[in-house]
Design goal:
Layout: H1 3-15, E1 22-24, H2 26-29, H3 34-42, E2 47-49, H4 62-81, E3 92-93, H5 102-110, E4 114-115
Parallel strand pairs: 1-2, 3-4
Length: about 130
């Protein structure tokens, strides 16, 4: 999508009553953007977590992945609410590149945290035949 078109989508969403969600990488929230995160949350946007270091869950040990998730959530919660906790106020997380493992998915399910994913058609540039009714 061209930058102008992307900008137009961002402007259209609020006019249509849609509030986009935002995924917060922990290490950035404690650095340059805590005020922005608080401002977006105050406007009613859904905030989701993204871990601390943007690591690929399948490339590190389960313990390191758990630490990264917990540290990211704690940083986000501190930026948003002034409290460092691994119990998120919004139970949403997206893994970097949607890269999860069965153990990290089980961990988050046990904690009541929903994992965002995507199901995209990889050949979206090809014309698709019309569905028959």
């Amino acid at each position: 999508m061209a930058p102008a078109a992307a900008h137009g989508k961002r402007l259209t969403a609020p006019r249509a009553g849609v509030r986009p969600g935002h995924i917060l990488p922990g290490r950035q929230v404690v650095g340059p953007i805590p005020a922005l995160a608080r401002r977006l949350a105050a406007k009613g946007h859904t905030m989701a977590h993204h871990g601390w270091s943007h690591s690929m869950a399948s490339k590190i040990s389960f313990e390191k992945a758990k630490e990264d998730i917990d540290r990211g959530i704690a940083a986000d919660e501190m930026a948003l609410h002034g409290i460092s906790t691994i119990a998120p106020s919004t139970p949403f997380l997206r893994f970097r590149n949607f890269d999860s493992t069965p153990k990290t998915l089980d961990l988050l399910q046990d904690r009541g945290i929903v994992v965002f994913g995507a199901d995209l058609w990889a050949s979206d540039w090809e014309e698709r035949p019309q569905a028959r009714s």
